[in-house]
Design a protein that fits this description.
Structural class: alpha+beta
Helix content: 40-55%
Strand content: 15-25%
Low-confidence stretches: 363-376, 389-403, 563-588
Largest sheet: 6 strands, mixed
Shape: elongated
Oligomer: single chain
Length: 737
C-alpha cells in the first residue's frame, strides 16, 4: 500500500513549510541538498507506513526536524539524522549504506541513537545519575542524545501515535533522564512543557485541581501584581532619570509577571507540606533591562537595590547567577521579597541578552544569533555542560575531551553496574556478588555465550552462568582488572591455603607419631630450613599439596637425628628418646605445680601466659623465684641454651587454675550478628571471663579480632576455640600467647 497523491501533496507541503521555518538557521545550499536527499530517501522507504493515529509516518519525521532546529538548536546534520533515525533497523538498510549515502558524521549519530534506543530503562529511577553519565559515555556524538530529547518531545505532544505501554516507558525516561538533561542545558521552555505533560500523565486530578484554583483567583492575582509592581516601576523610572543626568549609563527596561507553573506549585506544596492556599511564593516578576554589555552587572545590581529598598528581601533566597553563571550559561539575579504579611514575590533581574539565553539555552542561542554554521564547537559545549556540573559557564577553554574511563553494564533485571574500561565477565560477576564471582563459569552477553575472560563494553547486558564445581584459581588474577575482584580472589586462595596447611599439619603430626618422633617446634624449624621455606605455614601447605614428598621428610629426619642413614636402629632410638626428654615436661624427675613446689615462690610468665594443661618448664630467676614458661614460649630456646643449669622440669597436677590470661586471634567473614554470637559462646555458653575484645573489619567484608580471656586450663581453652570455630563465618581461631 502506498501513500495517495493527496497524502504525498500534504507531506510535501509540510516539508516545505518546515524548510521555510528553519531557513534562518539552516540555509547553506550543500546542507539543504543533504536534507532533501534524506527526505526523498525516507519518502521512498516509508511509503505506505502510518502512525497509530492514522497519520502518514513522514509527518513524524518532519516534525522532529522542526523541533530539533527551532527548540533544541540543532543543525543540518541533526535534521538529516531526524529523517533517518529509524532506517537502519526498521527497513533493512545497513549502516554502511547510510554512511556511503549521507556521510560518516550522520552515520555516527544514527549508530549512537540506535544504541541509546536499545537500552533497558525500566530501572532508571534507581540509577538516574548513572544513566545520565552512561548516556554521555556511550555515545561519540552528542547530537544522538539531543535527538532522543527531540523524539520524546514529539511522543508526548502526539500521544495518539504511541501505544499506552510505550507511552508509560517514555514518560519514565522523560522523568529521570530527559528533564534533568534539559535543565542542565538551560532549555527551560522545553523542560517546563515536559514537566506539565508528565504531571498530567501521572497525577491528572491534582493538575486540574491546581489549575482550577489558579483560574478562580486569576483576576485577584492580576490586581495584586499591579499593586506590587507600581512602586518598582516608579523607582526604576527615577533611577533611569538619575543615571541619564549623571551620564553614568543608559538603560531601558520592561517588566512582566507570571504565576509559577503547576508542577512547580505542586512541588512546593509537597516540599512545604501545605495546601495550595498556603504556598507563600506563587508569583514571580521579571525585570528585563536593555543596556550596554559593559554596564550589565551594574544595571542589574542597581535594579536589585531599588527593589530591596521598597520591599524586605529574604536573604537566604538571593541567587547570584550573574557573577557566577550556571553551567548552562544561564545568567540572572533572583530575589524573593515580602509584599505584605502573607504574600511573597520572586523577582528575576536580567538583561535582554541574558533573557534570550535563558529562554533558549546558550547552546541554542549561538544558533539563533547566526554565530556558527559548524556544530562542532557547540556540541563540545553541550558535552562539557552535561559532564561538568560545576562548570561556571560556556566561556571556558574548549579542550578536547577524553572518553570516559568507566563503562556501565546491565544485569538481566535491568540494574546498572559501573566498572572500569577493560573489565571482564569475571569482574562483573564479582561486582554482582562474591559467591557469583567464585562460581562464575561464563556468561551470556547480549544473548551470546562468552568465556570469563571476555572484555565487556559500555551498555552490555550480562547474565552470569555459575557452576557448583567452579572455584577461583590463581590464574584468575590475570583475568580481572578491578581491585575488588583481585582482593576477593586473593582472599579465597588464602583461605584455601590455610585449610590445606591445616591438613598438611595433621599429616605431619601423624607421620611423626608413626616414626616415634615428637611434633615440636625444633623439628618443624629444621624442616623449614631444609626445604628453604619462609615459615611453617608454607611447610604444611607443600606437604598437603604433595609439593614436598613425605618420604623426603622422613629421609631428612632420620639422617639428621641418627648420625647417618647407615646407623643401627638402636642408636637412632637413643637419639629420638633424647630429643623427646628435652621437651617432655612430664618426666618422672619433674616437680609438680601445686604440690612439690608448694613451698617455693613461683609465678606464671607473662611472655607466654601458661595455663593448666600446657607443657611447661620452670626457670629459676635471679631473685630465686620459679618462673613457669610454656615449652613453646618465644623465650624458651634462649633460656635453655644460655641458662640450662637453671631449668627445672615441672608439670601440672591436674588442678584447675584460678584463671590465667590467654589471648586468642579470630579471623573470618564479617557477617551480621557475628560479634554477638562470639560473645554469647564465650560469656554465656562457656561462662569464660573476657578481659578485652578488639575487632577490625576491612573493605572486603572480612575481620580480624583479638579476645583476652581469663580461662581455667587448656581443656577449657580448646573447648572454647572449637565452639568459636563452629560459628558460621569463622575461618581461623588461634591462641597467640
Amino acid at each position: 500500500m502506498s501513500y495517495t497523491p493527496q497524502e504525498i501533496a500534504s507531506i510535501q507541503k509540510a516539508y516545505e513549510t518546515m524548510l521555510a521555518d528553519i531557513s534562518p538557521f539552516v540555509n547553506a545550499p550543500e546542507h539543504l541538498a543533504l536534507i532533501d536527499k534524506a527526505y526523498h530517501f525516507c519518502l521512498e522507504k516509508y511509503d505506505g507506513r502510518y502512525l497509530l493515529s492514522g497519520k502518514a509516518y513522514m509527518f513524524h519525521l518532519i516534525e522532529m526536524a522542526r523541533i530539533a532546529v527551532l527548540e533544541v538548536g540543532l543543525g543540518y546534520i541533526s535534521v538529516t539524522a531526524s529523517f533517518l533515525h529509524g532506517i537502519d533497523y526498521k527497513t533493512g538498510v545497513s549502516l554502511k549504506e547510510l554512511e556511503d549515502a549521507f556521510g560518516k558524521t550522520v552515520a555516527v549519530v544514527l549508530e549512537d541513537f540506535s544504541q541509546l534506543a536499545r537500552l533497558d530503562t525500566d530501572k532508571v529511577a534507581y540509577n538516574s545519575d548513572n544513566f545520565q553519565v552512561m548516556f554521555l559515555s556511550l555515545v561519540d556524538d552528542m547530537r544522538s542524545v539531543l535527538l532522543k530529547v527531540v523524539h520524546r518531545t514529539y511522543d508526548v505532544r502526539n500521544q495518539d501515535d504511541v501505544t499506552p505501554q510505550r507511552l508509560a516507558r517514555f514518560f519514565h525516561e522523560i522523568k529521570y533522564i530527559y528533564i534533568p538533561i534539559l535543565h542542565r542545558l538551560g532549555l527551560y521552555k522545553l523542560k517546563a512543557e515536559l514537566e506539565e505533560k508528565l504531571m498530567l500523565y501521572e497525577n491528572p486530578d491534582m493538575f486540574q485541581e491546581i489549575k482550577a484554583k489558579i483560574e478562580a483567583t486569576q483576576e485577584a492575582r492580576r490586581h495584586t501584581a499591579e499593586r506590587f509592581l507600581a512602586p518598582i516601576i516608579e523607582g526604576l523610572d527615577n533611577e533611569r532619570e538619575r543615571t541619564k543626568k549623571g551620564n553614568k549609563y543608559k538603560f531601558s527596561y520592561s517588566i512582566k509577571w507570571r504565576l509559577k507553573s503547576i508542577p512547580s506549585i505542586y512541588a512546593k506544596m509537597r516540599a512545604q507540606n501545605v495546601p495550595f492556599e498556603e504556598v507563600f511564593d506563587l508569583m514571580a516578576a521579571r525585570v528585563i533591562i536593555d543596556c550596554a554589555l559593559k554596564d550589565e552587572q551594574e544595571c542589574c545590581w542597581s535594579t536589585y537595590s531599588v527593589i530591596s529598598n521598597l520591599y524586605e528581601p529574604m536573604p537566604e533566597r538571593l541567587r547570584d547567577w550573574i557573577t557566577k553563571p550556571k553551567a548552562s550559561g544561564y545568567e540572572s539575579l533572583h530575589t524573593t521579597v515580602k509584599y505584605d504579611d502573607k504574600q511573597w514575590f520572586e523577582v528575576q533581574i536580567r538583561t535582554t541578552r541574558m533573557d534570550e539565553i535563558a529562554e533558549t539555552g546558550q547552546a541554542a542561542h549561538y544558533l539563533y544569533k547566526g554565530e556558527r554554521q559548524n556544530d562542532e564547537d557547540w556540541l563540545l559545549h553541550v558535552r562539557q555542560v552535561l559532564e561538568n556540573p560545576l562548570m561556571v559557564s560556556f566561556e571556558t577553554s574548549y579542550k578536547k575531551l577524553h572518553k570516559s574511563d568507566k563503562i556501565f553494564i546491565f544485569t538481566p533485571e535491568g540494574d546498572l553496574k559501573q566498572l572500569p574500561v577493560g573489565s571482564t565477565v569475571l569482574d562483573f560477576a564479582y561486582e554482582v556478588h562474591t559467591h557469583v564471582g567464585e562460581t562464575c563459569n561464563g556468561a551470556r552477553v547480549n544473548g551470546r555465550m562468552v568465556p570469563i575472560r571476555h572484555t565487556l563494553t559500555n551498555g552490555d547486558k550480562v547474565q552470569i552462568i555459575t557452576s557448583k564445581k567452579q572455584s577461583p584459581r590463581a590464574d584468575w588474577l590475570n583475568v580481572v582488572v578491578t581491585e575488588k575482584a583481585k582482593n576477593k580472589i586473593r582472599r579465597y586462595l588464602k583461605e584455601q591455603e590455610l585449610k590445606e596447611s591445616e591438613m598438611g599439619k595433621g599429616m605431619l603430626q601423624r607421620r611423626l607419631k608413626n616414626w616415634k618422633l615428637p611434633f615440636s617446634e625444633t623439628i618443624v624449624d629444621m624442616l623449614v630450613k631444609e626445604f628453604k621455606l619462609e615459615n611453617s605455614l608454607q611447610l604444611y601447605h607443600q606437604i598437603s599439596t604433595e609439593k614436598i614428598d613425605i618420604a623426603a621428610v622422613k629421609h631428612f629426619l632420620m639422617a639428621k637425628l641418627g648420625e647417618g642413614t647407615e646407623k643401627s636402629e638402636k642408636n637412632l632410638t637413643e637419639q629420638v628418646e633424647s630429643l623427646k626428654k628435652e621437651y617432655n615436661a612430664e618426666a618422672e624427675d619433674s616437680l609438680t605445680i601445686g604440690e612439690d613446689i608448694g613451698n617455693v615462690t613461683y609465678k606464671l610468665a607473662k611472655c607466654c601466659n601458661p595455663i593448666p594443661g600446657d607443657r611447661v618448664f620452670g626457670f629459676v630467676t635471679n631473685e630465686g623465684t620459679l618462673s613457669i614458661h610454656r615449652v613453646n614460649c618465644p623465650n624458651a630456646k634462649g633460656l635453655q641454651q644460655r641458662y640450662g643449669y637453671r631449668i627445672i622440669k615441672v608439670r601440672w597436677n591436674g588442678m584447675e587454675g584460678e584463671g590465667s590470661q590467654v589471648t586468642v586471634r579470630i579471623y573470618g567473614r564479617d557477617v551480621i550478628g557475628l560479634l554477638g554470637k562470639i560473645t554469647k559462646v564465650v560469656s554465656e555458653d562457656l561462662q569464660v571471663n573476657m578481659k578485652n575484645i578488639n575487632f577490625n573489619s576491612d573493605k572486603e567484608g572480612y575481620f580480624e579480632g583479638k579476645i583476652v580471656l581469663q580461662i581455667a586450663d587448656v581443656d577449657a581453652l580448646e573447648q572454647l576455640m572449637d565452639k568459636i570455630k563452629a560459628i558460621e563465618g569463622i575461618i581461623e581461631v588461634v591462641r597467640i600467647n
